Amino acid sequence: MAFDLGVLRKLDEYLFEIPASYNAGMRVPARIYADREILEMAARDRSLEQLANVAWLPGIVGFALALPDIHEGYGFPIGGVAATDMKQGVISPGGVGYDINCGVRLLATNIDAAQARPFLQALVDAAADAIPAGVGRGGDVRLRRERLDDALEGGAEWAVQAGFGRREDTEHCEENGRMPWARAGAVSSRAKERGGDQLGTLGAGNHFIEIDEVLEIYDEEAANAYGLRKGQLVAQIHSGSRGLGHQVCTDYVQRFQSVVKREGYRLPDRELVCAPLASQEGQDYLAAMSAAANFAWANRQVMTEFMRRGFEKVGAARGLRIELFVVYDVAHNVAKVERHTVNGRSLELCVHRKGATRAFPPGHSAIPAAYRAVGQPVLVPGDMGTGSYVLRATEKAMREAFGSCCHGAGRALSRAGARREMTAEEVRATLAEQGIAVRAGSAKGLIEEAPGAYKDIHHVVEVVHGAGIATKVAYLRPLGVVKG
Amino acid sequence: MRGYEELQHTADVALRVWGRTLPELFVAAAEGMFALMGAPERLDSERELELEAEDLEALLVDWLNELIYLRDRYQELYSSFDVQVWPSWRLHGVARGGKAKPQGALIKAATYHGLAIGRLEEGEGFVAEIVFDT
After folding, report:
1. Residue A332 catalytic?
2. pLDDT tens-place string over residues B49-86
3. In a domain, A312, yes or no
4. From the CB of residue A432, how many other CB atoms can be counted at a distance below 10 Å?
5. Substitution target from A414, A423, A449 for chain B, most B beta carbons within 10 A
6. In CATH, what number is assigned to the domain containing residue A285?
7. What pTM value is reported for the model?
8. Given an 8 Å threshold on Cβ–Cβ distance, is A135 in contact with B61?
9. CATH of B3-133, one of 3.40.50.720, 3.40.50.1820, 3.20.20.80, 3.55.10.10
10. Fewer CB within 10 Å, N- or C-terminus of chain B?
């Protein structure tokens, strides 16, 4: 199963290429931002083989790309980007994943972490009590079908109009929390039944709410623009489109099986199924996936408001006014229509990011006005014991990486492996030693997401910083965690 | 003679499942998948499924994804299954279970990744390896 690293060409200190000649089906080369250690880790499982498989996609442009948080997925690797031509290319549900618009939202408070220390557990409890977590759990926000359709087409903007949050929250969201290609009619009624009652809920698995302290600032100019300062109390929400998004992916992977046969596509794995962007099926998936993405943005917006109310109460009981501001919200499982320059030609592309974050450079019109001079914030959460980074995107990411960067640490240990190596008590003890307050839905979930199960976040960030596709702005240290 | 075992997979969950007959294989796959999520407190719900697919692998993926859909739709887990399979390719299935709070990794879907239903080497029977998104 191990991948022969001898086939790789070194393009730059942190950039390697699998040539298109590696196998007969690759239409373009595959590239990976990495160093020797990350390559060796990726070579141990199917990550690099899966990356090479992505290069088979009809209409893929330039190269298939992986970031240093790459790990083994199913079909596509996690931590990858594939850009396809809107006219000649395909769209692939597997290149987005089942948790459509799984993403991260960073919230800043107006208080210092030191101030919050004495009532940290109360803040963790407030978040945990306000936001239902766990598998398939429904929430308090139950929508009638027509209201759900509004949420699917309106995203975070709809949530604000419905009373969950403020106008300025959505200004600091990728796409302003609303993808324009969404069509509620492209989402099956089964998907609406499966996830329709899950608005404002966290979910299970790797989803979390975290309360952090800004421990380090590396870039004062960008930190100022983002409203971050040393010692500040901040929070993160990591969640997605819940059962609704999962079902959209399931529906279209099933529907596209016959499209692949009709089009005569040769693919190395059935999970790579795809449809021409210029076909009815392709357009339907784009519309349904966008609607699910909007549901995820509405979800994170509703959760933001729940947390805001919870924090306000905790503060009020102590004579303190605690406010929450949205710093930024990024999607890391999504496909977007974007314009990029490839080999000197400006092309309209469908950029699939699966476990990858959009990273648009200073001056780009898609960035909020307040951040335009410094570039888009790139949020890179680590595991629950280590910490997270805020980066800023660069022109180089736009030129060389389809405006993309890494999305997290990336798993190093399987869930089964984590269960063999640790107990829930050990994980709790390790976190307690570091003063991290925890609320977890299940012991099994806590172990599977334990700090030791992930790659070193510092190492992943050093590679993207070294490669110059994003640079470090701030480092956040976890103080409290809510797990699904 | 049916069963399942968890395989090594870095990010997600993978199972090897086997059975003497195709219905046994399908039952083993469902049992293995729900064993990862916990058990229902009581068996007081029965769900019936009718499925049709282009090939056998697609039928297996559809069967598991249909059960995942029912899990979320009714907030239930299942632990007892009956399956009948007919060529080119149809399935009648029954899942028995009840309300439960699932544990651990959420299985979002069964995937087609590397999926092939093969013959067991020793003796009669079928085997498949399935990767789940968690």
Report:
1. no
2. 999 999 999 999 999 999 999 999 998 999 999 999 99
3. yes
4. 11
5. A414
6. 3.90.1860.10
7. 0.96
8. no
9. 3.55.10.10
10. N
